[in-house]
Specification:
With about 240 residues, the chain is an alpha/beta fold. Helix content is about 45%, strand content about 15%. The chain has helices at about 10-20, 35-40, 65-70, 80-90, 115-120, 135-140, 155-165, 180-200, 205-225, 230-235; strands at about 1-5, 25-30, 60, 75, 100, 130, 145-150, 170-175. β2 (about 25-30), α2 and β3 (about 60) form a beta-alpha-beta unit. α4 packs parallel to α5. The longest helix has 23 residues, at about 180-200. It starts with a strand and ends with a helix.
């Protein structure tokens, strides 16, 4: 499968390395020519994944049109602040049947839109999905067992992406609860930050457990109120 990964940070590079290493034709788009040269010539991205050897088959480029040319699946791994601009640039250059997969956690600051909502506005009439889950970039490229979920309003779209990215070390599950998956990915960061504050203040496990328990309850209520399903967060 021909894939494009947009975003040369740690998560984008890890996903690109995973896809290239599992036999896909993978192109990594990033903005910095020096980093692109490092990937192509030395199979490294030292600024984000120092010491990690990337697959030789991974191609990096700063040319967006070249990266997405004929790509069947495009993973957008751009910070939420720049997500809309990249999607807008994609609109005239992607193939009509390309699946756009958001691997970005967060909400758009001004609109509070989820990333698939932004993509739907900027690149209309394309199949959309979201990839999220409890995962660290370094452990993915190291081949440590990892679980993620792919959600799309059309379950067949989610299942196709699921099949393409799953390997013996990265297990993808499919879901049709796009809202639940996106909100879980965004809101868990709030709890993570608060947990760090609790630890920094010197509180113990009781306080941390209370924060996580009540935080998860609030996540479920908010997700359901916005159209997601409670079982997505529970499972």
């Amino acid at each position: 499968m021909r894939t494009a990964i947009l975003g040369g940070g740690s998560w984008g590079t890890a996903l690109a390395a995973h896809l290239a290493g599992s036999g896909h034709d993978a192109a990594l788009w990033l903005r910095d020519p020096q980093v692109a040269r490092e990937v192509n010539e030395r199979q490294q991205n030292p600024g984000y994944l120092p010491g990690v050897k990337l697959p030789e088959g991974l191609r990096a480029t700063t040319d967006l049109a070249l990266a997405v040319a004929q790509a069947e699946v495009i993973l957008v791994v751009i910070p939420s602040t720049g997500f809309r601009g990249v999607c807008r640039a994609l609109a005239p250059i992607v193939r009509p049947d390309a699946i756009l997969v958001s691997a970005t956690k967060g909400l758009e600051t001004d609109t509070l839109d989820r990333m698939t909502q932004v993509a739907g506005e900027e690149v209309p009439a394309h199949p959309l999905a979201v990839l999220s889950g409890p995962s660290f970039a370094l452990e993915v490229v190291q081949g440590q067992p990892t679980v993620v979920v792919v959600a799309a309003s059309e379950i067949a779209v989610a299942e196709r992406v699921q099949r393409e990215i799953s390997t013996p070390t990265l297990r993808a599950y499919s879901s049709d609860d796009v809202t639940g998956v996106e909100l879980a990915g965004a809101l868990k960061n709030v709890i993570a930050i608060a947990s760090g504050i609790v630890a920094g203040l010197g509180f113990g496990h009781n306080t941390l457990a209370a924060l996580i328990t009540r935080g998860l309850a609030e996540m479920v209520r908010l997700t359901v109120a916005m159209g997601g399903r409670a079982d997505t967060l529970a499972g």
